[in-house]
Design goal:
This protein is α/β, with parallel strands linked by helices. The chain has one domain (about 10-275): Rossmann fold (3-Layer(aba) Sandwich), CATH 3.40.50.1820. It contains 12 helices and 8 strands. Strands 1-2-4-3-5-6-7-8 form an 8-stranded mixed sheet, sandwiched between helices. The longest helix has 15 residues, at about 75-90. The protein is globular and about 55 Å long. The chain starts with 7 loop residues before the first strand and ends with a helix. Keywords: Hydrolase.
Length: about 280
């Protein structure tokens, strides 16, 4: 686990958040948001590349990765949107560049549209943004989270490995898969895994999806063309809803674009951010 560690902490309204920054102080800030059931670890290669030109902020959302996981914790999209707004204030970032993946896309959109968070530009990578969302597996677990939470640890581990692995098009390196699964193991991790699925209510994107036409900032939509979690046509629909947005298809990548095509994604982000001056 020493290849990616978050050294800073912030006490948010939804629990303690682990975070860190890469790159020299004073450089143009970029904030990266992860999705579910992942953590900031999926951004490691992209973050290190971006840090050559930017100061890059990364964080694990409450209930994910190395951040706090606790019984009764609110880890919903509503809570995460508030926490992201709190973090931007804590970091003193007025209008950073933002890149957000999956669930993090919804978090960044809610923070902007509902809580007044301001960005200079927003890149959305295979985001959870339009209804309907959630695979049949995701909906099944959400409806019976209390039952799944009682699975024997070995069966739970196998289920999470299969689920996380399916996010990649070409497949994940075993060591990477181990690292992504690890936060969800053990008594606290297993409970946290089913907690975040149980709280993943489509209501939170229904609240904002009709407001995407209000977005008045540069937006790039990147989409893995082999995404089996959220189909690529959803990316085209989302792009059409956002004034001036541009779609960047990522060939050969599944839902987890950062792992499947990190060089192509980094290039697209660097170009997009450079255009913002």
């Amino acid at each position: 686990m020493s290849d990616w560690q978050l050294t800073e902490t912030f006490r948010s309204s939804a629990g303690t958040v682990r975070w860190d920054r890469l790159g020299p102080p004073g450089q143009d800030p970029v904030v990266l948001l992860h999705g579910t059931p992942f953590s900031s670890y999926v951004w490691r290669a992209v973050a290190r590349a971006l840090a050559r030109r930017h100061q890059v902020f990364v964080w694990d959302m409450p209930g994910y990765g190395t951040s706090e996981k606790s019984a009764g914790q609110d880890v919903s999209l509503a809570a995460q949107g508030r926490v992201f707004t709190e973090l931007l204030d804590h970091w003193g970032l007025g209008q950073p560049l933002v890149a957000a993946h999956d669930f993090g896309g919804a978090v960044s959109l809610r923070a902007h549209l509902l809580h007044g968070a301001r960005y200079r530009a927003l890149a959305l990578v295979d985001p959870v943004a339009l209804a309907p969302w959630g695979s049949p597996f995701f909906r099944l677990v959400g409806a019976h989270s209390g039952v799944f939470e009682q699975l024997p640890p070995a069966l739970h581990r196998a289920l999470v490995r299969e689920y996380v692995g399916s996010a990649s098009g070409p497949g994940l390196h075993p060591a990477v898969l181990d690292r992504l699964v690890e936060p969800w193991l053990g008594e606290d991790g297993q409970a946290a895994f089913y907690r975040q699925i149980a709280q993943a209510d489509q209501l939170y994107t229904d609240e904002v999806q009709d407001r995407y036409g209000e977005l008045a900032l540069p937006v790039l939509v990147c989409w893995g063309q082999d995404d089996t979690w959220i189909p690529p046509e959803r990316g085209r629909e989302l792009t059409a809803r956002i004034p001036g947005a541009r779609l960047e298809p990522v060939e050969g990548a599944g839902h987890l674009v950062q792992e499947d095509a990190p060089a192509q994604l980094t290039g697209a982000l660097l170009e997009f951010f450079r255009q913002q001056g």
